[in-house]
Amino acid sequence: MDPFKQMADWRKNMDHFFGEQFWNEFDHIVKPTIPQINIYQYDHELICVASIPGLIDLNKVDIYVDYATLELKGVIDITYSGGTVVQDEILQGVFDREVTLPFPVRKDKVHASYRNGLLIIHLHRLISDESSRSRVNIQLDDDD
Fold first, then answer.
1. Residue ranges per domain, the chain?
2. Contact 133, 66 (CB under 8 A)
3. Which of 74, 75, 89, 134 has a 20 to 30 Å separation from 60 between CA atoms?
4. Left, alpha or beta for 54 (phi > 0: left; psi -120 to 50: alpha)?
5. CB atoms near residue 74 (< 10 Å)
6. Distance CA 6, CA 47 (A)
């Protein structure tokens, strides 16, 4: 039997018993944080890939880099008017995500681009101990 169907059936039974609003108290525990981020480490570089679907206005996402911290702020908003949501699996809403990086990075050598729903941030290893937060601009990559 499909384990996901079993979980859905289990949740329906719990909704029936406790009421549909019961789960609202546990959303922050049950749902993963957004945006989802992968970080790839190289000798002197980090590549951070964040899943941010539907981003049209690049100014609606803020990226801050401070020493060994990457912070992303913004909104994932996927809306279609006139219909009723039948399935709701894509996580969305306001986010403020702070990630500790494996090593300090240079604030003057950061490049961010957005393509196909992915925000890609290139960071380079910092050699000094200087620390200050700075905002990073995002470029839209055209499809090839």
1. 1-31, 33-140
2. yes
3. 89
4. left
5. 22
6. 37
pLDDT in tens, 25-50: 665 555 678 899 999 999 999 999 99
In the numeric block, which tokens belong to residue 19? 């009421």
Structure tokens at 18: 């406790």
Both tokens of 110, joined, read 């950061």
- Count other Cβ atoms within 10 Å, centred on residue 132: 8
Name the residue among 90, 89, 64 with its Cα closest to residue 76. Answer: 90
Taking only the tens place, the pLDDT of each residue in 67-114 is 999 999 999 988 777 888 888 888 888 999 999 999 999 989 999 999
- Is residue 25 within 8 Å of residue 100, measured between CB atoms? no
Counting every residue written for the chain, the total comes to 144
Between CA 61 and CA 94 the distance in angstroms is 10
pLDDT of residue 6: 72
Topology of domain 33-140, CATH: Immunoglobulin-like (2.60.40)
CA distance to 51, 95, 142, per residue, from 114 (Å): 10, 17, 9
